[in-house]
Amino acid sequence: MVKGKRKPLKQIQDSIKDYNKVLTVGCGGCVSICLAGGQKEVIALNTELNVTFKLEKIETRLDAYTVERQCNMNFLAELDKVVEKYDCLMSMACGAGVQLLAERFHQKPVIPAINTMAIGIDRGVGLYEERCRACGECVIGFTGGICPVTRCAKGLFNGPCGGVNNGQCEANKDAPCAWVDIYNRLKEQNRLDSILKFQETMLWQNQTQRTIIQEPYEKRYYEKS
Amino acid sequence: MPETEAKPEAPDRKEILEFLSEHKTKMKLFLKVCAHCGLCAESCFIYTTRGCKPEYMPSHKMINSIGKLYKKKGKVSWETFEEIKEIVWKRCVLCTRCYCPLGIDIPEMIALARSICRSQNVLPDFDEE
Predict the structure, then answer these.
(1) Helix count (H) and strand count (E) of chain B?
(2) Whole-angstrom distance, CA of residue B87 vs CA of residue B81
(3) CB of A43 within 8 Å of any CB in chain B?
């Protein structure tokens, strides 16, 4: 799931201090689950901002509203009547949610309050690890279920670099080398031959925005366009 | 209601009624036309992966959340809200994939029930151990 982290309070404060009425919009989806932008976090952020604004005698008024999901237009409809009263919206959703909110209410400035960090896994309450960068070219079937794009600092596709030292990564000495882990995993499964096949390099440059259409729906959407 | 405020004795009925009256037409129609055909159940992955138990049927979830709030005209206890919370957050992920041959928008109704819960500060516990 998408993982986010709240921006520093000072940064948020600076981005909204010039507006009189701000609506903080939470999201009930992924960012609620990773404790970054759900209703509880919206209330906490507004409380903190109100205190700092009061101390600095800034007259920004903050209200809160949480929708079930900011990345789905249907769930944004309930905001139609609410946003009129505000001159700025502050979104606590992931980058996708912020952009859809900005698309629906294009006449209002929309400011993000969280940074979208990763597609990750849950290790504990409030503790998450990145596992996927949504590169669109999944190779983990060859690499023993370990993603070289995410785990390797250089995103290498065909084995480790020369910087690996005693199984550790040269970019971060506390992190194990992804390719050492891949080798050990495949060796355990007796599948080392799968990394002997050459993987083409990925075309990172000149990437365009992706649209995802599931196969059974291709006909429907291609006919429309 | 800010989280820091003490919990009132009972949920704010006036506020609940405001939500209900705003969506009354659609809600009344949806609750009335549900034919209990069970077709929505097959389109719900939670229902199919959790032993096809009736409590996971989308229609069941709708009737026992927003339906209950509507039937009791918003006069419900905190215990009822806890039951609704369990239904709308733990038994439904709002994937919006449930299919109704009569055109009932079940996700919209579940989302409405969630909004009412949110208005009463009844929230999912994503931070529980």
Answers:
(1) 8, 0
(2) 10
(3) yes
Interface confidence, given as ipTM, is 0.74
| Distance of alpha carbon A139 from alpha carbon A146, whole angstroms | 9
Task: Mention every residue, 6+ apart, whose C-beta is less than 8 A from residue B5.
Answer: none
Do A53 and A24 share a domain, yes or no? yes
Is the same domain home to A7 and A33? yes
User: CB–CB of A55/A48 below 8 Å?
Assistant: no
Reported as a single tens digit per residue, the pLDDT across A127-182 is: 999 999 998 889 999 999 999 999 999 999 999 999 999 999 999 888 999 999 99
Nearest of A209, A206, A207, A225 to residue A217 by alpha carbon: A225
Contact with chain B for residue A39, Cβ under 8 A: yes
Q: For chain A, what is the domain count?
A: 2
Helices (H) and strands (E) in chain A, counts: 9, 7
Judged by CB atoms closer than 8 Å, whether chains meet at A74 and B108 is answered as: yes
Element (H, E) at B61: helix B58-63
Q: Transcribe A93-145 into DSSP letters.
A: S-HHHHHHHHHHTTTS-EEE-EEEEEEEEEEETTEEEEEE---S---TTTTTT
Domains of chain B: 13-119 (1.10.1060)
The residues, any chain, with a CB within 8 Å of residue A106's CB and separated by 6 or more, are none
Which domain, by its residues, includes A107? 2-118
pLDDT in tens, A46-101: 999 999 999 999 888 999 999 999 999 999 999 999 999 999 999 999 999 999 99
With CA atoms as reference, report the closest residue to B110 among B87, B126, B128, B78: B87
Record the tokens describing residue B95, joined without a space. Answer: 């994937």
- 10 Å Cβ neighbour count for A13? 17
Q: How far apart are CA B117 and CA B83, in angstroms?
A: 11
Cβ–Cβ below 8 Å for B126 and A74: no
